[in-house]
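#onboarding

Welcome to the new folks! Below is a worked example of what a typical request in this channel looks like: someone posts a single protein sequence, and someone else replies with the predicted structure as tokens. Don't worry about understanding the tokens yet, we'll cover that in week two.

Example request:
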Amino acid sequence: MLLRFITSAEIKRRVDHFEPFVVGQYEMDVAAFCERSVDVMGEESDHIHAQALTDAVQVPVRIIQIDSSGGQSAEASVVDMKPEGLSTEEQAALGPPKVHMLYRPGEHQCHMLSKRAP
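Example response:
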């Protein structure tokens, strides 16, 4: 729930940035979008949510989406999200994503990776 509130606050804080995406995709204003799609539990998250959360906490996130709609075999696609508005040097200093989120339709899991001893 805390991550949803952080995401919602970032979308509202940067309304000028997120509004075109919200209005274009959901046909509602930012306040209504946050109330109906971000603040409540049980709603699916999408790219807008992930980018807002990544920007708010300034941590790169890797999203691994598992699609098993094709039957018994599943396919995975990977999307790396980086905080927007950082210089190239700041982006490089963050390094690779350390938070990995596994997404399957109807299910979200968040995994924190730790460094392994050599």
